[in-house]
Specification:
The structure is a homotetramer of 267-residue chains. Chain A is of the alpha+beta class. The first copy, chain A, has helices spanning 9-14, 29-42, 99-108, 121-127, 160-170, 190-213, 230-234, 239-250, 257-266; strands spanning 52-56, 62-64, 80-82, 88-90, 114-118, 148-150, 175-178, 183-187. In chain A, strand 3 and strand 4 (88-90) form a beta hairpin. Chains in contact: A-B, A-D, B-C, C-D.
């Protein structure tokens, strides 16, 4: 669990108090992945059963949500584990045939733990527009830089050579808008993946509303956001916890069978 | 129940695992029809009590949702059965006077089991626009081809000759946008009807957003989607199950009295 | 309760079956009024505590929702009764100061039982646009004719002379868009008020979406809807019942204390 | 609790009846603040954990929602207290680093008790447009005057000199649109803060819809609203109570631990 490090000197200065209750319980990686999927589904990453998130593990395996389930029903117990060839080695569900692109990116980017793809509502609009949405507010600017606009999509993402081409096009970038095919986001951990995903969807939604109204004034001098943009690296304090906590509050089953059993045991 | 055939060689290769739980319980045709109506209502097929779905049965009769009920309250126990003249032969509710068009299409298209009409939110927008929405993303392209734009609507659909004219205009097509009157979709089974209905609504919604923003880049070379479009024929793996499962999770009563009774019996 | 008259020969022919359960319980006028407010709130008549509905009674008094409560919390027990001067003669809540316009219309239109005003979401958009929304689909055409566009609003509606002017401007019409101030709808009964209110909001919403997209094709020959438009007079079969039933299902408390007490008594 | 004063002669004349039940229970300042945050979150003040509300207390301290929690999960027990330097003196949560601007405004404006900032959905759209939304309906005109458009935002709001500049720019005004950064609203009490916040969001939302459709007709002679605008000063009767009541009805936990305990004690 990537709670803001209390040993981080800046956070110790800014937020010295312990809080009235724990912001989140201790979470397993499977629980974090399920919570991320649920939280993003609520914000527009909701194209039925589309979309996958891989989470690299220290032993070289990857956790991933199964092919069969929608993001809003996923629990920690449903998360499967694949090896570096995409073969399921733990769990009873199946892996998406589109796992190839995820693995190809993980292979090239050891700085990353999370690779995420979905057809988010507002991301899709810009994916068909031929443009990257401008940054129209501070929240849109929490993550610096424009997504790459990858326009060489020529088929589904399950073919090896297409996966290689796409991973090469991503290069060292943090996010992409896939032409006519949604968004692609990578991150060093779940917290960063969450911030990048909600920031991109917010940016896409707001930009659509601003430009539908008429002339807008984007923020061009992104240097002004130097402080805010530290959040992408250091973690936006408390934000991921609040959004994950909401999912647990609305449906504790997201934490999986073990959590339920352990809760029942206590009750 | 049209679960993806595990005997389908491609699916056996792609999804060999049995899953942590059954994707759906065994369903009667009445339960499938009620689940389809509920799932589509949630996605925009929600014009009050408008809309009907007929499901041809092997004995030449048809199951249909009753005139009196909205799609979001329908249960399997409410589904009525009509004969080939549209006379109710099972169930206590009444049949819509608009049954004529459904029966006329069933008469001409023995390849079809499902005929569906409603005034979906985004379908209506394009039904008034005079245009078929372009395909702006992969999800919109899951079902190949443009709907016909049937612009000779000259009254309600309960008159026999109008029904014949409309059925003739549909010909061998799979879907239509009815000028100023919503959408009309036919399919070989519930699964295909579901995919076509959600795909058309998604396509209409996305296209509206893209074109409201300004210039968009539709996908014109639909050959690129040859893989995705196999889903229309073979069934999009796991998707119908996930959406039907959600309806059962949110309101188990959708399965009808018998299901409830049988569940109570077990409890 | 205005259930479709089974003694109506057309309905007896079209819908001879009794149904699997009663479409609605017997309702008092207070229950009908509360259900109408709740159903309309759900469809966009939701500007906080704005909006009033008066229902003329045979004894010359009027039932009305109180000033203090929002439409989505109203129960039958909250409905108050005023005399022809607007003085509360039954109930513990207060009457809106804007009752004057309602009473003025009732005084002139003995063909009417219901007078309704609110700031509905999509009605407001057109109220500021200077135009009446065209009829872009069959559902929008269920009620014939264009609302008058009353543009002489010069203050709040609680002054007597303004009320007289507005009532005179309405004349024998059935509905109006009030410039910069929402909609005003009159009807012979609750069922007709419901159909007119949801039809106007649907018409306003769809027309906005069509015109935001670009050129639309309105229905100009409304004669084509002669059948559908019988619904305004005769009652759209089953529709009001379905929408009222939904409110009872979602919150039985809408029926008021007496209903609850009587239900508890049975239990 | 700022219930409409029954000793107010106008209200005694307009609303002489006591009501069927109390419009709200007696509320502590902490409960009022939590209810305001919840009610506004529901109307679009919902950018994750963004946004703060300070409520000046007679002893020179300030109540404020903590940094860690989203507005839709806040309870009265979570509200913290800071002194005039922004140091937490009561409560276990932490205060936002952006407290500086709030305190700077409180220092200059002793007529105010409430200072509120958030990134509301429709407020953001206009904050990027370079324009103040016109008043397109009566509801938008409940609060007189145009927000100032503060376009000198050059960083986050946690720096002292930026806070001073912003507070100086606000001057004696009641509200501001912050360029690319949402809205800023001040008020003499919770009731007025609520009315101003929902009015601004309504105004922003409606204006967007009107202008997206095409030419609109704003209300320019705001004198016509002289009556309605008394609400800003005197309190819009019953409105705050209804919206706060809704939050209590949907989640009584908003009132905090003490309320729950006391309710349990009675049960």
């Amino acid at each position: 669990m990537e709670a803001p490090k209390r040993s981080n000197p800046m956070m110790e200065k800014l937020a010295p108090r312990p809080g009235r209750y724990a912001l989140l319980p201790e979470l397993t990686p499977q629980q974090e992945l399920a919570l991320l999927a649920r939280a993003l589904h609520r914000e527009g990453y909701d194209d039925h059963i589309a979309g996958h998130i891989t989470l690299a593990q220290p032993d070289g395996t990857f956790l991933v949500n199964p092919w069969e389930l929608a993001w809003d029903e996923l629990t920690a117990s449903d998360i499967i584990r694949v090896d570096s060839t995409g073969t399921v080695i733990e769990g009873e569900w199946n892996v998406t045939p589109a796992i190839g692109l995820h693995l190809e990116v993980h292979k090239r980017r050891h700085d990353l733990k999370v690779v995420l793809h979905n057809h988010s509502r507002w991301g899709l609009v810009w994916s068909a527009s031929g443009r990257v949405p401008p940054v129209y507010d501070q929240t849109s600017g929490q993550v610096a830089g424009d997504p790459i606009y990858y326009d060489e999509y020529t088929g589904t993402v399950d073919g090896a050579s297409e996966a290689e081409a796409a991973a090469a096009a991503l290069g060292n970038e943090k996010w992409a808008i896939l032409k006519n095919h949604g968004v692609f986001i990578v991150a060093k951990d779940i917290r960063q993946a969450h911030l990048r995903s909600i920031t991109l969807e917010h940016r896409c939604r707001l930009a659509w509303h601003v430009e539908s109204l008429g002339e807008g004034h984007p923020i061009t001098d992104l240097e002004t956001f130097r402080v805010a943009q530290m959040s992408d690296d250091l973690g936006f304090p408390f934000l991921w916890e609040a959004m994950a906590r909401k999912e647990i509050r609305l449906d504790p089953a997201v934490l999986g069978d073990e959590a339920t059993t352990s809760a029942e045991r206590k009750a």
